[in-house]
Amino acid sequence: MDELVQTAGLSPLLVPPNRRQRDAIVIDLAVAFSLRTADVAPMDPLLVDYNRAIAYLYERINYERTADSVPYPFRLRRMHQLVASLDLADICGRNVPLVHIAGTKGKGSTASMVATMLSAGGYRVGLYTSPHLIKLEERFTVNGELASERDVIALIDLIAPIADDLGNSDLGSPTFFEFTTAMALLYFKQRNCTAVVLEVGLGGKLDSTNVCTPTVTAITSIGYDHQHILGNTLAEIAAQKAGIIKPGVPVVSGTTEPEAREVIERIAAQTKARLYAIGDAFEVKVVASEMSKTWSTCFDLISHDTSIRPREHWSISLDGYHQAANAAVACTIMDQLTARGIDVPIEAQETALADVRIAGRVERFPFRPGVDVILDTSHNIDSIAALCRCVQARRGDRPVTVVFGTSRDKHHIPMLAELCEVADAILLTRYHNNPRFREPQDLMRDLPASRTTIASIQDDPVTAVRESLSRVTGSHLIVVCGSFFLAAEIRPLLESMSK
């Protein structure tokens, strides 16, 4: 552990004595600083202050690092108090246009698309997403730019006294996610943002972001994930996601499952929120003839509502049929913003979508001619299925090797079955920056008995990717997937190798 502290450039005095907290913080900080210590002196005063601030933040309860056996006592009273204490009501949507987006999959991509289009229209856009891949600052950006280390220090130092006071009250101390949500909103206020896009962290009804007053809400999709928190049926999960719907506020839905659609329709009707649902108000069609030409997606948005403008042969620089649906939801959100006076010229929207970039979403790293590595953060059956569809469309006659690792609270068996349908070989691994990982031996045991896929285990994910590339003799496609945490450990390697 002391070696990790030294590797991350930390002073041991900054790490709490409690072993559980110490282990969690040091692992996270070692990952966070893996890209920085090469060019920042370990005892640089800025780095010391940053370490101190981040260590304080990581002392909080962090449900992104907990297994499914841990209870989740979610409530919003504490977050409302944080917003009031920091005077954040205006940036939470009272005087600033705000888009609030939930969904099982696609919400992060859709949020990024909306933010990019608003930015192209001249708005100063604060975007809040989670989790981060490499740096905490990825969670809150303004027009695509990350906060600086000095910004992070100042934000934590400003919020800390309020958080400590809450910790001494009956409300209790803010969680990691509540604290980072407050950081994002405060940063957007400080940067004078003229529009805000918030991605829900988990569920919707009791998520920390659900203290906002949105201009438009959206639910991208409903599928099985986090059942131990959200419920075991699509109806139960949909009810949690639809908790972001507000009275009289338009809601855009990309949900196709009938059971989930019915719940969203009922809650929208109860709250008198106008619903614009895929399949009713609009449809999306992928232009298949264009898909084979580039690593991007071409789509048509077909409108069945006068407030939605049709789009013909628009391109997204993100690969996959599922991204066409996300783009259709994003465009429909933009049309509802337009109806409320937040207008972005449609030409600017089209250009912005063609240029949008999101790390870890079917992200391609060319290794050499004919050999590509695809990094994807897919971590549930729906997102894995969408990824596999992309792989089938892009592989040609190339063999496919999958490097897979996931979390204990994910339903790994159907994901493995789906991957074995497209993979010629699969390397089972685990991430090391979070204790939620599922052991590769467990994954091996649960592989489909009928598979023809060659399977092996490599505990270190970076070694797994290196070994996969070293075995390649001709054209090949290597796919890394299963978790945000896995992607975080492998992406720096892929960036360095593909330059």
Task: Give a brief outline of the structure.
The chain is α/β, with parallel strands linked by helices and 499 residues long.
Verbal overview:
- With 499 residues, this protein is an alpha/beta fold.
- It folds into three domains: 2-59; 77-355, 3-Layer(aba) Sandwich (UDP-N-acetylmuramoyl-L-alanine:D-glutamate ligase), CATH 3.40.1190.10; 363-498, Mur ligase, C-terminal domain (Protein-Tyrosine Phosphatase, Chain A, Alpha-Beta Complex), CATH 3.90.190.
- The chain has 19 helices and 17 strands.
- It has helices spanning 2-7, 19-32, 45-58, 77-85, 90-94, 107-120, 149-167, 176-190, 227-230, 234-241, 258-270, 288-291, 321-338, 346-355, 381-394, 412-420, 440-445, 461-470, 484-498, and strands at 98-102, 125-128, 140-142, 145-146, 195-199, 216-219, 251-253, 275-277, 282-286, 297-303, 311-316, 363-368, 371-375, 400-404, 425-428, 454-457, 476-481.
- The strands form three sheets. It has an eight-stranded mixed sheet with strand order 4-3-2-5-1-6-7-8, sandwiched between helices. It has a six-stranded mixed sheet with strand order 12-13-17-14-15-16. It has a three-stranded antiparallel sheet with strand order 9-10-11.
- Strand 10 and strand 11 form a beta hairpin.
- The radius of gyration is 22 Å and the shape is globular.
